[in-house]
Amino acid sequence: MKLTDLDIIVTAPPAPGWGGRYWILVKITTDTGIIGWGECYASTVGPDAMKAVLRDVFDRYFLGENPENIERLFRRTYSSGFTQRPDLTVMGAFSGLEIACWDILGKDRDRPVYALLGGLMNERLRAYTYLYPLPHHNISEFWTSPELAAESAVAMVEKGYTAIKFDPAGPYTMRGGHMPAMSDISISVAFCAAIREAVGDKADLLFGTHGQFNTAGAIRLGQALEPFAPLWYEEPCPPDNIEDMARVARQVRIPVSTGERMCTKSEFATVLRAGAAEILQPALGRAGGIWEMKKVAAMAECFNAQMAPHLYAGPVEWAANIHLAASIPNLLMIETIETNFHDALISSTLTVEDGFVTPPTAPGLGIEVDEDLARAHPYEGHGLHLQMQDAPCDYANGNSFEGGSPPKT
After folding, report:
1. Which architecture characterizes domain 116-365 according to CATH?
2. The pLDDT value given to residue 217
3. Residues whose CB falls within 8 Å of the CB of residue 20, separated by 6 or more in sequence, listed in order
4. What pLDDT band is residue 43 in, cutting at 50, 70 and 90?
5. What is the 3-state secondary structure (H, E, C) of 201-233?
6. Could you tell me the residue ranges of all domains in the chain?
C-alpha cells in the first residue's frame, strides 16, 4: 500500500466561530483506494501558505511511501533542511498528514486507531468544555460577567460535564509576558468565586491563560486564585520560558498545565525535566501527531504527570485526541467543543454524552467526514486561525478577551 494523492480543504466554521477562523483538513488517498483524514493545527502562517507547506512535505516525504512507516516519515520531516529540531509550521503539516495515515491504517485493518496503539485502556473519556455564552446571553457582555459565566457553568454541569474552563484574565498580546492589571486579578477572582458557588464540588474549575504573564505576574495572579482550588492553571507564562514556568509551579498551589503551543517530544521533555507542569496539553494537529504524543504520554508517566489533549480546532483533530486518550493510562481528560458545525462535519459519528466520550469502534478514526459540507464553507478571510492583539494591557480601563471568538477577517 502506498500514498498517492493529497487534497487540502480549508473550511471556516460559521459565526460565532468557536474553534478558530478556519480548519485545515487533509485527505490522503492510497493506491488501494483507501481515504484517510487528518487535520493540521498550524497557525503561524495563513492557510494559503500552509497549503504550500503541506504539499511540499507530502510530495517530499509521504508520496509513494507506505503509511505504516510512521517513524520513518517523522524522522524525515523532523530532519528537514538539516534541522533536527522542533519547527511549529513543518511539524503542524506533518501532524495532519500523520493523523491521516493512522486513519488509513485502521481502515485497512478494519480496526479503530487506538487498537493499533496498544489497545483500549479507557472505555470512557472524561471531557471538559470552555464556558460559552448561552443563547439568551449578550455575547459581548459574557466575557467580563462572572454572573453570566456562572449561569453557563451550571448549564454545562447539567449536561454532565465535570470540568469547565474559562479565561477572564486577558489580554493576549504580541508584546510577551506582562504584569496583570489589578482589575484583571479582581475579575479573575470574581469569576472563580461565582462559578465555584454555582457548581460547588460538582465540577473542577480549569483556569485558562495563554502565556500572557511575566513570571511575577503569573505568581501574583495564581496565588490570588488558590482559595477556589482550580484543577489547573494553564500556561501562565510564554511557552518558551520553561524555567520561569517552573518557578510559577513552585510558588503557586495550583497544578500548572501547558502544551497547546508545543511540538515534539523534545519540547515536552524539557517541561517534564524542569518540573514546569503536572498536566500536558498537546494539540495533536500541531504537536507531531498521534505516535509522537503516545511517546510523550509514556515520558509523562515516568514523571507522574497526566495528559489532557487540547482542542481549539475542528472535529478531525478531536477524533485523533480521542484515540490517543483511549490508549494511554495517564489520561486526565480531553477538551471538546460542541457546535452544530463540529457535529455535522463528521456526521455525528462522535459525541459527548453526560460529560464523557466513548471511543468509537468503527475502523480508523471512526468518523465520517462530510466533504461537501466542508467545501461549502471555504475560508475567504485574511486573518490567522488565532491572533494576538498589538495593543498592550490596559491598566486604566480594563481588558476583555472574547473567548477565542475571532471577528471575520
Report:
1. Alpha-Beta Barrel (3.20)
2. 98
3. 13, 43, 312, 313, 385, 386, 404, 406
4. confident
5. CCCEEEEECCCCECHHHHHHHHHHHHHHCCCEE
6. 116-365
Beta strands 306-307; 334-336: pairing state:
unpaired
pLDDT band at 365 (very low <50, low <70, confident <90, very high): very high
Q: Which helix (H) or strand (E) holds 354?
A: none
Cβ neighbours of residue 89 closer than 8 Å, sequence gap 6 or more: 42, 44, 45, 50, 53
331, 122 Cβ separation under 8 angstroms: yes
Kindly name the residue from 210, 323, 342, 385 that is annotated as catalytic.
210
Q: Is residue 137 annotated as part of the catalytic site, yes or no?
A: no
Active site residue 210: yes
Annotated active-site residue in 136, 178, 310, 377: 310
Q: Mean pLDDT score of the chain, rounded to an integer?
A: 96
Residue 257, class by beta-carbon neighbours within 10 Å (0-12 exposed, 13-18 middle, 19+ buried)?
buried
**Would the pTM of this model clear 0.90, i.e. be above it?**
yes
Indicate the residue type of 159. Answer: K
CA distance 23 to 67: 23
Grid coordinates given for 189: 477572582
- For position 278, what pLDDT does the model report? 98
